[in-house]
Design a protein that fits this description.
It is built from six helices and 13 strands. It is elongated.
């Protein structure tokens, strides 16, 4: 019995790999091309440093309004910790396809958003923390490139454009700026329940009940020619969500092609 046991142990310690082929480790040489870069900032007035007034006023309006949130700890997918640099940005490559989350804490409150990753593309994300603890975020996808300044400017322009769209929507829901909202809606509007006139008629009918409607946070995604935004709203004192689908116009504006309330 002891001899048989010793033989078994010896066999386990020196297995015979004759004829066995091992697969080489799988390495993706293009993994670095699947990446994201996020920009975190607050919207607040910044005083120019004395002597730099010319440089301050030569900047764009967005740069003057936005204050980078530097040195802030950000949690990616609830497990990876990254810290924003002096410009309020974080970046990571070798990402997996699919949806990912970003979470951070500021002023004692926790905030979260999500974004999409596609293979060999870069996801750009902007996260704006607004007064009263409201988070607005926007994202876009582009072919891998180390040059992100121009795409970030396009994303910020979309980010600001959604302020105007949602501002008009809020006013129209309350019975104001209805003509402006009608012009903002695309002629090919369709939401599965009717067309443009059907939606406007329904909005006018309930305008008296939505005087207190208020748009809070939002999250949007910009593609080449279209976009969507999901807004958190307060409707009759209760939380609710509205999803809008949009398409760009030649003058840089947006038209709403569907609203799903």
């Amino acid at each position: 019995m002891l001899s048989a046991l010793a033989l078994l142990v010896t066999a386990c310690e020196n297995p015979d790999f004759t004829g066995v082929k091992f697969k080489p480790p799988k390495v993706d040489p293009k993994a670095f091309k699947t990446a994201f870069r996020a920009y975190f900032f607050e919207r607040r007035h910044q005083e120019p440093v004395w002597g730099n007034e010319f440089l301050y006023h030569s900047k764009s309006l967005a740069e003057r309004e936005y204050a980078a949130m530097a040195g802030m700890l950000v949690m990616l997918d609830e497990r990876v910790r990254v810290k924003t640099d002096a410009n309020g940005q974080v970046a990571l490559d070798g990402m997996q396809e699919g949806f990912h989350t970003l979470r951070f804490t500021h002023g004692g409150s926790s905030y979260a958003t999500h974004f999409r990753i596609k293979r060999e593309q870069v996801s750009l994300v902007v996260c704006e923390l607004r007064p009263a603890g409201v988070l607005a975020s926007s994202s876009t996808l582009l072919p891998h490139s180390f040059l992100t300044v121009s795409p970030f400017k396009r994303l910020l322009a979309f980010h600001q454009g959604m302020d105007r769209v949602l501002g008009v929507y809020e006013a129209a829901a309350q019975g104001r700026q209805t003509d402006r909202w009608a012009r903002m809606m695309s002629d090919d509007y369709a939401d599965g329940s009717g067309g443009k006139e059907d939606f406007l008629r329904a909005m006018n009918l309930r305008a008296g009940d939505e005087q207190g409607l208020k748009v809070l946070g939002r999250q949007g995604e910009l593609t080449e020619k279209a976009a969507y935004v999901v807004a958190e709203v307060q409707r009759q004192g209760n939380p609710d969500f509205v999803r809008m689908e949009l398409k760009g116009t030649q003058d840089g504006g947006w038209r709403v092609t569907a609203v799903r309330e």
